[in-house]
Design goal:
The chain has one domain. Helices cover about 65% and strands about 0% of the residues. It is built from three helices and no strands. α1 runs antiparallel to α2.
């Protein structure tokens, strides 16, 4: 059971915050793909090198980046589902625990919680994951 939320397992609020960040990163990736596609398309550069770049972008780079955006969106959806499931499971456990003592915290385990405030600067998925790792 986490000390601050009363949930057993993951903190659903944290899962939902992470889902929002992951969705934002997917959206940014799609924006980069769109603006890059436009820039490559309207470039006044001519010759075989730009033709090769346009071909590589269309065949390989653009689809690969869009697949990553799709994977990020799928991850965000999974995080949202896990948050819902965590809430559902914890409600049942918390009801059962009201009759018993809460689970003891294992030795050597430190529980921390980061609160994101509206005044905090936006962070990227990379910086968030580096804090976790």
């Amino acid at each position: 059971m986490t000390a601050m939320t009363g949930f057993v397992g993951s903190d659903p609020d944290e899962l939902e915050r992470l889902a929002v960040l992951v969705k934002a990163e997917a959206s940014k990736m799609r924006e980069v793909v769109s603006s890059s596609t436009w820039a490559i398309r309207i470039s006044e550069w001519t010759g075989s090198r730009i033709d090769a770049l346009r071909g590589e972008w269309s065949r390989e780079s653009r689809p690969a980046l869009l697949r990553v955006a799709d994977q990020l969106e799928a991850l965000a959806s999974e995080l949202e589902t896990n948050a819902r499931q965590q809430r559902d499971a914890s409600v049942g456990v918390m009801s059962a625990q009201s009759r018993y003592e809460p689970y003891p915290k294992p030795e050597g385990v430190t529980v921390t919680q980061k609160t994101v405030r509206r005044s905090d600067p936006p962070c990227s998925l990379t910086s968030l994951l580096s804090e976790v790792g």
